[in-house]
Amino acid sequence: MADGTETTAALGYEQARDELVEVVRRLEAGGTTLEESLALWERGEELAKVCRRWLEGARARLDASLAAQEDGSGEE
């Protein structure tokens, strides 16, 4: 897992998703202190937001492309 120094804004979707998977794995494994668990949870929330933004952006691009095709332009 990244050490948290990389800002979430600089993460690509795959990076954020992979780190989020690791955060969830660590939380599910247990064995962390309350402080560590809270820090992991907060990081997970940040990463989930990054993934959501990427997916919403992809959805918007797809919708725009489909709308353009329906309008008969066929090009972006």
Architecture overview:
The chain is mainly alpha-helical and 76 residues long. Helix content is 71%, strand content 0%. The chain has two helices and no strands. The mean pLDDT is 89.
List keywords for this structure.
mainly alpha; 71% helix; 76 residues
Helix-strand blueprint:
Blueprint: H1 13-29, H2 34-70
Helix pairs in contact: 1-2
In short:
This protein is mainly alpha-helical and 76 residues long. The chain has two helices and no strands. Helix 1 packs antiparallel against helix 2.
Q: State the order of secondary-structure elements, H for helix, E for strand.
A: HH
Number of helical regions: 2
Strand content: under 5%
Oligomer class? single chain
Contiguous runs where pLDDT drops below 50 for at least 5 residues:
none
Number of strands: 0
Radius of gyration: 17 Å
Q: How much helicity do the residues have?
A: over 70%
Reported for the largest beta sheet, the result is: none
